[in-house]
UniProtKB/TrEMBL annotation:
Keyword field: Membrane, Transmembrane, Transmembrane helix
Sequence segments annotated as region (Disordered): 116-137
Domain Urease accessory protein UreH-like transmembrane: 32-220
Protein name: Sulfite exporter TauE/SafE family protein
Membrane-spanning residues: 88-106, 144-165, 171-195, 207-224
Pfam families assigned: DsbD_2 (PF13386)
Gene source species: Actinomadura montaniterrae
Top-level taxon in the UniProt lineage: Bacteria
Amino acid sequence: MDVAGLFLAGAGAGLLAGGTTCAATQFGLLTGAVGGAAGAGSGQAGTRPVRQVSVFLAAKLASHAALGALLGLVGGAVQPGPRVRGTLLAAAAAVLALFALDLLGFRPVRRLLRRDGASSSESEPGDGGEGCHPPRAGRSGRPVLLGAATVLVPCGLTLSAELLAVTSRSAVGGAVVMAAFVLGTAPLFGLIGVTVGRTMALLRGRLTALLAVALLAVSGWTLLSGLRLGGWLPSGGGATAAADSARFVRTDASGTQVVTIWALNQGYRPALLTARARVHTVLVLRTRHTSGHMRVFTIPSRDKDVYLPATGETRVDLGAPGPGRMPFMCASGHFPGAVTFR
């Protein structure tokens, strides 16, 4: 695919993602970036959110373009495995939680995030004093850091753009795909960011607690996805339907156990299966007009990602698994499932 085609593909995915998964996944980071607008004076209330959102999007563009160039240059070799992604998501969740506590006025966190320190005369949150507003020095780098951090919290369609960057086999092509993807998401991100920033400025902190709670919820959701990807959650739970196992698990003429799973946009069908242990097993993954994160089938216990076509069939040789539960999920850790070998 030529550079123009890569740009159009990336921008198209970005336009779709901006209105769906990316806006939800990265809303917490965007909110943290514009949070300082609440402290602006009345004359600055209209311009500060625009400036902060612009810096946030510029940092996001730079980090994604750099990742795309790296992916295009070295191909699949640079793709981080599930455990690495899980670690990055857990770290991103911790950062989100810190900014949520900062918005709530938790003093140890405020001192940590502001290298110039919070003075002893700092007033409590909500008392109307300057203490409820971040110092200028503490705010200046926040949009840059959070915009760059979006590369650590990819939505489903971001992964599709990354796959395009890998297949471009070119640093220029990879950078173009990822940059175009970010540009495609920019209109909605800009609108949301400016709206949230101006609302916070007008309400002067009255919306801060609600936004902080939302940020904590996103942090928890991100942490859960990271723990799933890393294989660090308990493997028990979930009932297996006998009918599903009978329908989707069979033995072929050679004695190989064949386990079939459909990877669809709405999740895995079936998500829970039971199969025989210590038998040569082949996993058959089927797709039908599948997109986004569902096109990457992740097996955390094997630190393995399997890239799937939009429509087709992919076979994965599992060897002869011993007794136990083999969790699987999409690349972002949102849709879990498991095969129990007995």
